[in-house]
Each structure stands twice: as C-alpha cells, then as structure tokens.
Amino acid sequence: MNDQPEHPATPAAPGPVTTHDAPDAPGSPSLRAQIHQDWIAHGKDWTLPGFRAVAVARFGQWRMTIKPKPLRAPLSILYRVLYRRVRNVYGIELPYSTQLGKNVVFEHQGAVVIHGCATIGDNCIIRQGVTIGNRTLDKPLDAPTLGKNVNVGAGAKILGKLTIGDNAVIGANAVVLQDVPPNTLAVGIPAVIKQPREATRP
User: Which residue in 90, 96, 87, 84 sits closest to 49, CA to CA?
Assistant: First the structure.
C-alpha cells in the first residue's frame, strides 16, 4: 500500500514528492483531542467543510503512526476515500503531510489548494480560493511556512519557499512571492509589504 500524500504539490508541479511520516510527539494531543479542538475552533459545527477537511487531514497524519504497515493499510484506504470526498465535494485539497498547528480554521470551501510540504501555524485562518504552494516546476517541494495567527484573505496565493511571520495579514487576492515579516500586511499583485497603519490610511 502506497502511503504517498494526495497531490502534495499544487497543480502546477506534477511528479513524485518525497513525504514524511507524522508520528505523534511525546506528550502531543491524541487524535480525538485534536479533532475536538478543531471542532471548537470551527464554532462547534461538525457540518462545516473546513472542519471536515482538517479532521480528515488529522486522521491521515495519525494513521501513519500505526505499525506495522499491513495494519495501516485499511486505514489508508479509508483516508483516501475521505480525502477524495473532501476534495471533490468541498473543493479543499489538504494533504495529510501538511503540518497543521492548533486551531487552524478553513472559513469557507472552494478552490483551496494546500501543498503537502507546507506548514500552517497555530490559529491561522484560511479562506476560499487560497493556494499555498510551490512557485516553479523545477522546485516542486518548495512550500510556504505560515507562522501563528496568520490571516489569509480570500483568493490569496502564497507561492514558493517563503515564510509568513506571526500575526501577518495576507490581503484578498494578493500574490505573495517573498517573506512577510511578523505583524505586517501583504497586499497586491505581486504583494507589497505594508505596516498596518499604512494599510488603514484613507
């Protein structure tokens, strides 16, 4: 049974991708505790597509801790079924190999593509139409790292091996191709960095 992630790169970068297992670190929350926390973060509404996408990704990460591999096989089949349903019905591509922090919220569904090598920190908010992925075909494993409390607006594209600092805000439809410092705002195509006070001036 192949345990490669589902489409870990953005559609612009086909080809095999090296993945990593995601074992629970000592003292880390159980799968049930993680999903319960995600449920609270999504307003205690289990019907939300964003919550379901995160829950499936958490399950996909957890099943990689099951040893030996033959015992993992039926869980991998179940994961693939659930992953495809979330992708095809809700339009959220969130591979299990994406590193998710606590309380990550996908506010709306539709055209959301997350790279399998991306990292999304605690308390981040992702909206519809967002792509977090690689920038060029020759570097398919390059993926962004989002810090904590990052707020990503609808339609934003964050591309390449870059870092979005804690508490940064990515404006709607921005195309981010460079690092974004903490506590700043990135807006435009390509995105430019502004201090919050600059962005609020009339």
Answer: 90
Tell me the Ramachandran region of residue 190: left when phi exceeds 0, alpha when psi lies from -120 to 50, beta otherwise. Answer: beta
> Residue 197 has what pLDDT?
56
Domain that holds residue 82: 31-199
- Sheet containing 185-187: give its strands across: 105-106, 125-126, 151-152, 169-170, 185-187, 192-194
Pick from 194, 160, 159, 165: nearest CA to 180? 165
In Å, how far from its chain's centre is CA 141?
14
Say how many Å lie between the first and final Cα of the chain, rounded. 57
Q: Is residue 152 part of a domain?
A: yes
- Quick check: is 168 in a domain? yes
pTM (2 d.p.): 0.83
Are 19 and 116 in contact by the 8 Å Cβ rule? The answer is: yes
**In terms of Cα–Cα distance, which of 84, 72, 85 is closest to 1?**
72
Count of Cβ atoms closer than 10 Å to residue 149 Cβ: 19
The pLDDT tens digits for 83-123 are 999 999 999 999 999 999 999 999 999 999 999 999 999 99
CATH of the domain at 162: 2.160.10.10
Residue-wise pLDDT tens digits, 13-35: 333 333 344 444 445 689 999 99
Asked whether residue 179 is assigned to any structural domain, the reply reads yes
